Amino acid sequence: MWETLAQAVINGLLIGGIYALVSIGVTLIFGVVKIVNFAQGEFVMIGMYISFFLANQFGIDPIVSLVVSMPVLFVVGVLIQHFLIRRVLGPNDMPQIFLTFALSLLLLNLALMLFTANYRTVHTWYSDEAIHIGELYIPVAKLIAFGVAMALSAALWVFLRTTDLGKAMRAASQNRDVATLMGINPNRVFCVALGIALALAGAAGSLLMPFYSAYPFVGQVFVLMAFVAVVLGTLGNVIGALVASLMMGVAESLGIQFVGADSGLIVVFAMLLLTLAFKPTGLGGGRAR
Amino acid sequence: MKKDRKNSVINNVGRDQPSPNRQSRRKFLIKTGGVLAASAFGAVPLRGWAADPINIGALYPTTGSMAQIGVGCVAAAKLAVEMVNEAGGIKSLGGAKLNLIISDVQSDTTVTRTETDRLITGNKLSAIHGCYASALTMIASEVAERAKVPLITGSSSDQLNKGRTYTFTPFARASQFARAQLQMAKLGNDQAKIAVIFENTAFGTSTSNGLKELAPSEGVEIVMFEPYSAGFTDASPLINKVKSSGANALFSLSYLNDLILIVRTVKQVGLKIAINGGSGGFVMPDFYKNVGKPAEGLQGVAHWNHDVSDDAQKVNVEFKKRTGEFAFEYAGGLVAQTFMLADALERAASADPQKVREALSTLDVSSGYAAMAPGGKVKFGPDGKNVYGRPVGVQWQNGDLASVFPKEDARAPLLKL
Asked: CB contact, 8 Å: B292 with chain A?
């Protein structure tokens, strides 16, 4: 019995690491730029296709292709902020919502057109391998993904705590107007925030590739979980999003194991509703970061 | 013959009409005028025209989410028409050639309705085949029934045999697949204990219920029966559950990406279990490409397979030459269907769709390409169902899909765990 439980927790934590990369991106953008990026899932999809084509054409390992997918998506993020989002920032939320939603639809349909709806997978030597410890097993591909995801999250945390740019981003997220008065260039900070958020989505895509199929709608699967994690962990709170993602992974896994295989999401959403009922500001206690 | 080539739509999707500029409109008027005059004065055989070509409509999704299989179907349809024409066409009609008119139904039910309608009203069709995907075929069949044009299809939905007179289904029905799967499980292990996992929408639910109902009469025990939501991110918890159920066979009624995830996870867990992946995406060449080695030994069911007969193997060689892949179930089935149509046209000695329907309803073949189906015989009952139709059990062996069940159709033994 305890093995089943332990295995369910392991499974949940491992997939939670991937949710974390996506949700940290969403929460970072919300925290700093104050917009909800509905297209975040589509950038995961783009990251997956980048890794797929690099693996397929040049035989590059998907994990290694992080070094391509992250910079590419960082640049895409900067460009999107500079040329699109900057123009709709203002007192009215609607144009921002429509912009990122339109971006999501556009990217999704472009992918359908360019790549068709077929499933693409990459096969690596570790794709089907697992480390067995007694009755328990840990899939190698997911363990690598989890490890890299945690390392990237830690790096982001250090960046936000110690560098001037990181501090500027935190300042902008706490109070944009005061930050501007203190001489922080908001557009520069926003560009970096978008860049980092998209790079994290790209990383999630590359890390998923050894064990998950790429297809145009793949982002939607992960973005749903990311939004829940972001709300659960307090909007704008990076650590909160990370912790909430891991919790959700475990809750989903336990739900599938002990309630029913179609009830994983029910458990996750029940958790969300309970949190909102008793702690409406989320687990982060309402503090951004 | 220039005119012939221009009218032939074999290499054009039907939508590609020439733009109506003045030049082509004049040409068009001259031509249609000629044709109208010819038909008005009765059959005036023009020089160089052996006989009027016979139009066969082909409705397949060549764009959209179902495009991949749809494109393969079109390749097979073209191959089949060439085979009939090279063998001398329809002899009772003076060696008339089959002319394939292809239409893209865009993986969409609404488009399927309008395209089927457009194809029938815009052309003098003798018969139609399509659309591979049951959801689309249901719509096309409704339109064809109303227009009284026979439609022959490889789609397996049992609904296609209800209250229809112009729809013909030469291959095994969905309801027959479940029984074959259970019998295969028993063949693999006398004490088969099956875990059934299925995605919780119409497809998975209806198929799994079929399995549940049949299991007792086939002497197979179902130890786990679990719906899941399609498009999950992680199959591990589900496989964890299968592991604790003590099952020795796993039936996965899943869409392709879920199935890939499930198979990989089973390998990671190191679970020794016979997996039956059913039909659909599982029996396509792409499945093996996506899953690789772990696909070895996986079982499934199909309505056609490229090794069921010598004729099928010949078709397979030719199809492989053209597309690089083995002839998948719909592709091979389509070649057989085209020869069934040719047989009917031959006996009807007419291109009239009503007469073709009559001839199809009395079709009875047991040799040649038209009989190229598991069971080797085709004869339609009053519901349009092939009375000899049966599914073939298949298994991935050395990267190829081998027929392993039933004994009569098996070309390789079923590899046990």
From this structure: yes
Does residue A280 belong to any structural domain of this protein? no
User: 3-class secondary structure for A210-269?
Assistant: CCCCECCCHHHHHHHHHHHHHHHCCCCCHHHHHHHHHHHHHHHHHHHHHCCCCCHHHHHH
DSSP character at residue B366: -
pLDDT, tens only, A81-102: 999 998 888 878 889 889 999 9
The reply to whether A13 touches chain B by the CB within 8 Å rule is no
Asked, for residue A288, whether it belongs to a domain, the answer is no
Residues of B in contact with A260 (CB under 8 A): 226-227
Tens-place pLDDT, residues A170-210 = 888 888 888 888 888 888 999 999 999 999 999 999 999 99
Banded pLDDT at B39 (limits 50, 70, 90) = very low
Distance separating alpha carbons of residues B227 and B32, to the nearest angstrom: 59
Distance, in Å, from the CA atom of B351 to the CA atom of B347, rounded to the nearest integer, reads 11
CB atoms within 10 A of CB B285: 18
Q: What is the ipTM metric for this complex?
A: 0.81
Which amino acid would we find at residue A272? Answer: L
Any chain B CB within 8 A of the CB of A130?
yes
Contact yes or no for B264 and A211 at CB 8 A: yes
Using a CB–CB cutoff of 8 Å, tell me whether A29 touches chain B. no
- Mean pLDDT to the nearest integer, A21-35: 90
- pLDDT tens-digit map of A255-273: 988 888 888 888 889 989 9
- Tokens 């599938």 correspond to A256
Find the closest chain B residue to A250 by CA distance: B237
Q: Do B67 and A116 touch (CB under 8 A)?
A: yes
Residues from chain B contacting residue A12 (CB–CB below 8 Å):
237
Rounded to a whole number of angstroms, the distance from the CA of B273 to the nearest CA of chain A is 16
Map out the domains of chain B with their CATH numbers.
48-172+311-379 (3.40.50.2300), 175-302+392-405 (3.40.50.2300)
Write out residues 247-286 of B within 8 Å (CB-CB) of A. Answer: 256-257, 260-261, 264-265, 267-270, 286
Q: Which residue's entry shows tokens 């998907």? A: A62
Nearest to A118 among B68, B264, B265 (CB): B68
| Tens-digit pLDDT profile for residues B377-392 | 999 999 999 999 999 9
Number of folded domains that form chain A: 1
A17 touches chain B (CB under 8 A): no
Give the span between the Cα atoms of B404 and B295, in whole angstroms. 16
Give the domain extent around A24: 2-219
Q: Taking a C-beta distance cutoff of 8 angstroms, is the pair A233, A240 a contact?
A: yes
pTM assigned to the model? 0.77
Residue A51 lies in a domain: yes
Tell me, what's the pLDDT at A52?
A: 96
**Nearest chain A residue (CA) to B242:** A257
Q: Is there a domain that residue A237 lies in?
A: no
The pLDDT tens digits of the residues spanning A201-229 come to 999 999 999 999 899 989 988 998 899 99
Q: What is the CA radius of gyration of chain B?
A: 23
- Backbone torsions φ then ψ of B90, nearest 5 degrees: -95, 110
